Amino acid sequence: MGMVVDWPSLAACRNGDPDALFVQGAEQNVAKRICRSCPVRMECLADALDNRIEFGVWGGMTERERRALLRRHQNVTSWRRMFEAALREKGSRDKELVPMGG
């Protein structure tokens, strides 16, 4: 299964108060909880990283966490493509683990 293109329509935060994701300090931990069970968390994070979004909690990461990730992985040109490749690799590994036959 690949990543969802129209991810905002499926986001856990879509019906909430958008300002709740643009908070500071300890309130960011509350905002990050919204992301924990979000079905499109990876898509959201990839979008924030690829577009260098500076403010708010996106994909379960604060702006400080995203900046640190970008600094550690300066060679990544597309986070979406990287996440998609990781999903494909995980899928092929999972298929190898499924016993054939019955």
UniProtKB/TrEMBL annotation:
Keyword rRNA processing: no
Transmembrane segments: none
Subcellular location, record wording: Cytoplasm
Gene Ontology biological process: cell redox homeostasis; negative regulation of DNA-templated transcription
GO molecular function terms listed in the Swiss-Prot or TrEMBL record: 4 iron, 4 sulfur cluster binding; dinitrosyl-iron complex binding; DNA binding; metal ion binding; protein-disulfide reductase [NAD(P)H] activity
Cofactor note: Binds 1 [4Fe-4S] cluster per subunit. Following nitrosylation of the [4Fe-4S] cluster binds 1 [4Fe-8(NO)] cluster per subunit.
Any single Gene Ontology cellular-component annotation: cytoplasm
Pfam families, sorted: Whib
Primary location class: cytoplasm
InterPro entries: 4FE4S_WBL, Whib
Cofactor: [4Fe-4S] cluster
Modification after translation, per record: The Fe-S cluster can be nitrosylated by nitric oxide (NO). Upon Fe-S cluster removal intramolecular disulfide bonds are formed.
Keywords, alphabetical: 4Fe-4S, Cytoplasm, Disulfide bond, DNA-binding, Iron, Iron-sulfur, Metal-binding, Transcription, Transcription regulation
Binding site for [4Fe-4S] cluster: 13, 35, 38, 44
Domain (4Fe-4S Wbl-type) ranges: 12-68
HAMAP family assigned: WhiB
PANTHER family: TRANSCRIPTIONAL REGULATOR WHIB4, TRANSCRIPTIONAL REGULATOR WHID-RELATED
Known function: Acts as a transcriptional regulator. Probably redox-responsive. The apo- but not holo-form probably binds DNA.
Family: Belongs to the WhiB family.
Name of the protein this chain belongs to: Transcriptional regulator WhiB
Organism: Virgisporangium aliadipatigenens
